[in-house]
Amino acid sequence: MPIRSLFPDLEPLLPRVSKPIQYVGGELNSRVKDWDCVAVHWALMYPDAYEVGLPNQGVQILYEVLNERVDALAERTYAVWPDLEALMRENGIGQFTVDAHRPVAAFDLLGVSFATELGYTNLLTALDLAGIPLHAADRDESHPIVVAGGHAAFNPEPIADFVDAAVLGDGEQAVGVLTDLVRDWKQDGRPGGRDGLLVRFAATGGSYVPRFYDVDYLPDGRIAAVRPNRPEVPERAVKHTVMDLDRWPYPKAPLVPLAETVHERMSVEIFRGCTRGCRFCQAGMITRPVRERSIDTIGSMVEQGLRATGFGEVGLLSLSSADHSEIGELAKQLADRYEDDKVSLSLPSTRVDAFNIELANEFSRSGRRSGLTFAPEGGSERLRRVINKMVSKDDLIRTVSTAYAQGWRQVKLYFMCGLPTETDEDVLEIAAMSHDVIRAGREATGSRDIRCTVSIGGFVPKPHTPFQWAAMADPETIDRRLRRLREAINADRSLGRNVGMRYHDGQPSLIEGLLSRGDRRVGAVIEQVWRDGGRFDGWSEHFSYARWVGACASVLRGVDLAWFTTRERDADEVLPWDHLDSGLDKQWLWDDWQDALGEFEQDDCRWTPCFDCGVCSNLGTDIQIGPTGRPLLPVLPR
Ligand code: SF4
What we know:
- The chain has helices at 7-10, 50-53, 57-68, 82-91, 120-130, 171-187, 193-203, 282-286, 295-309, 327-338, 354-363, 381-387, 393-405, 424-445, 475-491, 493-496, 506-517, 522-531, 545-555, 561-565, 586-597, 615-619, and strands at 40-46, 72-78, 109-113, 145-149, 165-166, 213-217, 223-228, 237-238, 266-269, 271-272, 291-292, 313-317, 344-346, 371-377, 410-417, 451-458, 499-503, 580-581.
- The protein is an alpha/beta fold and 638 residues long.
- The chain is globular and about 75 Å long.
- The model has no long low-confidence stretch (mean pLDDT 93).
């Protein structure tokens, strides 16, 4: 049956809302397929505003992969701002896709990509606007299957009540598996109804269906055990790993946004995974092993993507892009090729060493020489040993001196506050470091016009990392340390006035910590916050700490906000995500946590022998790094 577009109802409301263009769709490279010609319909959601959601690589990849199938279609939906939400409620308009403005409720699946847990309340808004029951248990066959993905899905327990399934890891192949299952189940006459389909999902071992697992608690509030409650369901759900990125060169034709977005460039992922072993970094841990894309594929993707979009900037993405084994050759060849076209190239994550300045120089050949960002993360040498960020202050000063000497005028340094074992003194060392950076820059250039920005984020311990057992610092401690740091930076006016300081206060981090390491009991908190008006919690102007604290106090019993956040866990505690397999051995993570407390560093397995984190042996994989021996960038006709 054809599905009616909601656009005729929506259009008259658009002049009354902010940035109406974000709801219109029709971007270059967007697709609208015939509803009746395919068996499986996916709505893909990024649970934030269009300006943040549109550039998301994960959604763009799945959108293309699914739309290339003859038996499926995919459309996108984003969180609507509160002004439109109010009008949609007033006028009875449901959550819609931006591609064909079809109602999300009509799709077979709603796939939601969570880069951060602060998007959870936006999921509830979308479900409610769509007319989909908030609780998975209340849905029937007429409702879409709600599937969570993205990094936050590695602990989906806080949203276990609201999602039907969660998929861990790489999505390219996983969405194909789910599409096949839905298509076959529909063709078979929907045996077993909604539960029948979810059993098929869970039985693959690659989809976690929370309702098929029971959680028992100990009298002290900790989890006693999580067990499957059906025989077909495995003890643990395993993450998906795409082993040959060259076979999945997506996105081929990235979407070109209509409205302003946070990134307006073409992004090519040059490798996936990271083995540097920064102990706070969930992305680095859960995306192992390292898998490089070959430089000929990268070259083709850049060429094809630029033709398809007309973008003037290309970002070479990964968790530590300078670690690609052929990055030097890649940088030189891309810079040679695009110098005349004024296409600028960027490498978002920059390591602290001279080689990276060379790379940055190559990349800036055809564009602006604006700023360089380095991430020492911890203020003191001791703290950097704790977090396994092997950067010395001397390295940093040497590197920034080189950068300033070669014409870079702005350096940004990124740190975290609230790290395990951190003291006020560790944080205050950031002030001394920033002063030394300004001194070094003045010496290298002979100019006083040197800028350095110190940017500080709150540390949030994440599941599947060595810091998953750590206690968070309370927001008052974080705020006091940051106040003292500001005073220390400004104590020397001649240096301090050239140092900018940007930071967030500690409260949003604490709530992110609750949502990251929470269990199923946190679902009631999310729902209460949402009922109290919580929306767009990742935006400081919408976030309300009082609302979260109030909801915790009113719905949690026997445990509280501090229990979930500022409490250190023991070795024997069952963690809410222990039944979700990221490939990492829990014992290895624990040993690495003990090494952190002992201030011992762990090498990178790219360059040293395997230290047996478990990923390769558990998942039957291996790191894949070059050089590949493949030809370099193909010369394509212009
Ligand atoms: S198993 Fe060994 S080689 Fe594989 S990611 Fe872990 S440490 Fe590296």
